[in-house]
Amino acid sequence: MTTYRVCCFLRRFRPASNEPSEAIGDVFEAYAGADGSGSALGEEALRRFLREVQGEAGDDDVEAAAREVLAFAAEHRLLKKGGGLTVEGFHRWLCSDANAALHPRRGVHHDMGLPLSHYFIYTGHNSYLTGNQLSSGCSEAPIAKALRDGVRVIELDLWPNAAKDDVEVLHGRTWTSPVDLMKCLETVKEHAFVSSPYPVILTLEDHLTPHLQAKVAKMVKETFGDLLHLSESEAMPVFPSPEDLRGKIIISTKPPKEYLETKSSKEEAQNGSAEEESVWGDEIPDNKAQVATARQVSEKDTERYVEEDEEMEKKVQQGVNGEYKSLISISLTRRKHDMDQDLKVDPEKVSRMSLGEAAYEKATITHGSEIIKFTQRNLLRIFPKTTRITSSNYNPLMGWRYGAQMVAANMQGHGRKLWLTQGMFRANGGCGYVKKPDFLMNTDKMFDPRSKLPVKTRLKVTVYMGDGWRFDFRKTHFDKCSPPDFYARVGIAGVVADTMMKETKVIMDNWIPTWDHEFEFPLSVPELALLRVEVHESDNHQKDDFAGQTCLPVWELRSGIRSVRLYARDGEVLRSVKLLMRFEFS
After folding, report:
1. Keywords on this record (predicted)?
2. What is the pLDDT of residues 166-186, one digit of tens each?
3. What would be the CATH architecture of the domain defined by 1-99?
4. Is 125 designated active site?
């Protein structure tokens, strides 16, 4: 019995049981009973289960999967004498990492030989910040963590120090404390290819005079050496591929023709209003508000845009350092603040453009097809608006729906929107590059994510049960007087038509909840759909407690009954917590 003390009394509850749920037991009996044994799953029954439930297609795949299951069972002593898998062994294998929803050994499987513009790229924003955008510390530690997590685009803001004789990395004109540039560069070199062999793009926000640019050029060349990719010409007709750039570090910034000084963010913070978001993020909007806004955009707005988030006030600089300029392999195009001109595609030259969140959202209303066409050859980076001083993020699907490759995220801004970014880049072996769907590269017919699209497939999701909280949390973490009351939320983030969220019933007073709940999601664009899973503990008197989450790319889900690991708010994996779920496509 499990005991909880309430004042002078003891409340007793049945101990947690990790036996298979009724639904899993039924599946086992259906296959074990078919070959006469009833109490064990023989090899032939296992093969039928792998083919019919787990979706293993060819004979070779079935045989390979069967060998893996039997090897796992033998290693953990889960086979009966005389052969066959017991129901306990069957359940234990189903819940193991070997049976994960994403194939644990599939690795990189997208074509990596296409130009960079063909990929979504895992992109960080203000990569050196440890907390909020206004007063937190700057450090090389967040850069190291981001690279270890698979981030491929690191942003550094370069500023002169107080004496104007050295370079610091900090969020300019705020109360953030600086970090030495050399520390950041050495950290990039050390961790760049720990989790992925594909290129790291270093975006520099340059606020330097020519002599400091020369100093940076020397530091970059000496630190990176042969790892540094130098372009042979200023005008590239097409970007190289991730495979071409394997093991390389690329510098991307504006050609330094102007010395840029920034409006004080302290002043901006005083004039702007901080968003009141919960620690783990607001619900993802479905963009209906944006569609309504389209009707209110004036003719003047459609002809000319002034980017709300651009902080720079330009001052002419006398001279440019040539060594620094030679480092830039991907140049950042200076905006003309006329979207028709900004999105013109140059057939002779590719480049990168940056748009603030607000300006980008306006552009999708009036220039959606032009954005998609632009991103078929060029790179587009979307960065969070400056009023997000808490380092919160925005819905990255806003960028991906229109082909934007570099949707910048504050990696320290934990919450649902960052979870989506982390979910997207679990695809393709977690290498930080995910090939865009073919329809975003189609030049004959432009994709419109706002149009009414036919249902392409239906995803049926069954949530059987969960376990592991009893190992990772104190007995009184969720409720001081009883075991927790868990429920699960399951949904889709994608194009507007596919976005929805549903939830199971609450299972009272149980550390190992069994829901056996089935959901169905019609998907019009499964290639951009992310499966969202969250578990909460119901509380009648306070806000429900958060108990874990994950986000998975739908197009990489393995059919069948699968083990799904959950993560904490900060994206770190929970050591023991897993769900057992089933995925069926029709």
Report:
1. Cell membrane, Hydrolase, Lipid degradation, Lipid metabolism, Membrane, Transducer
2. 999 999 878 999 999 999 999
3. Orthogonal Bundle (1.10)
4. yes
